[in-house]
Amino acid sequence: MSSDDNWQGSVVLVLASSTGGIGQHVASLARGLQAAGCRVLVCGPAATDAHFGFSAKGLEFAPVEIPADPGPQDSGAIRQLRKAIAGRDAQVIHAHGLRAGFVVSLARTGLPVVVTWHNAVLARGLKGQAGALLERIVARNATLTLGASEDLVQRALTLGAKRARLGPVAAPELAAPKRTRSAVRAEFRLKPATPLILSVGRLHPQKRYDLLVDAAARWRELSPVPVVAVAGSGPSYMPLAQRASQVHAPFHLLGHRTDVPDLLLGADLAVVTSDWEARQLFAQEALNAGVPLIVTAVGGLPGLVGDAALQIPPGDLEALDEAVRRMLADPELRAGYAARGPVQAASWPREADVVTDVRAAYAEVTA
Q1: For 87-100, how does the pLDDT look when each residue is reduced to its tens digit (9 = 90+)?
Q2: SS3 267
Q3: Are residues 197 and 211 in the same domain?
Q4: What pLDDT score was predicted for residue 201?
Q5: What pLDDT, on the 0 to 100 scale, is given for residue 1?
Q6: How far, in Å, CA of 317 to CA of 171, rounded?
Q7: Domain count, the chain
Q8: How many CB atoms are closer than 10 A to CB 63?
Q9: Displacement of CA 347 from its chain's centroid (Å)
Q10: Domain, as residue range, for 232
Q11: What is the pTM of this model?
Q12: Termini Cα distance of the chain
């Protein structure tokens, strides 16, 4: 890395509605930039400040209400953003996600714009067309695009991005568990031999938790019957709860949890069933914790996990069913994946590496 990584200017970080990985990434980045001597303003919905504690951690925060979906309210978000940065000595504005990138593009602040793409547009039909238009606007208006995975970089370039490259996104350091394994498992009333299968993420159709519900119903024929738990909140909560009830699946929706290290300590197997991911946070947490992991081979996941996780095709109930049965039936197989997880995790960029990379990006666009 060149001396560009010594940049110590003034940056505005912008995010839209978030309860998961994007918000955690922005919080990590903001803390790291401030510690490195940069002046940081975070702009996003008030709910993100409450959720991720920007203000509570001593960061300057201005509410800019960017909802999850575009609409007339974006005009209000544009006004709020302009007001937040008026009179500041900001040198660069860094938007996280397409929604934040779209509002920043329309705000036309006159500042160099860096946009980190965290997610792909998966919707079809009219919503998919609207998403593609939003992608194109964001790609063409950014001074520099950073993609959380290589496929996002290529997508941005295809849509007319001036400059685009991979932008590493680190998993925040996982805190130590506060409970014992037996205490965690007691929450679910599990007998010692009962497997606990864990997933963590936003309850959204992209995550394909519907497959996990249907697979959990199949696993009722196993002995002992494994219990599936999913931590997270989101729009799919009621459909998933109804489906689990219909098929009598041993499936727990835990809501938003702040004790993921504890849940991982109690788990025997971690599963990611998504149709697409860049650098999925829970996959990183599971490998870091040495929990055997099954993931769908989509987006940035194959490069992220390497041979440290069992990879399956997306949207394939049979493959998911077979992979979990295979893992549960073979303690040596699980032990092998558990051992490789932390080794793979050690190869990933750390939070300090991401801050260094981003500072170099800011130096590049402000030169």
Answers
A1: 889 999 999 999 99
A2: coil
A3: yes
A4: 92
A5: 38
A6: 28
A7: 2
A8: 14
A9: 19
A10: 181-345
A11: 0.84
A12: 16
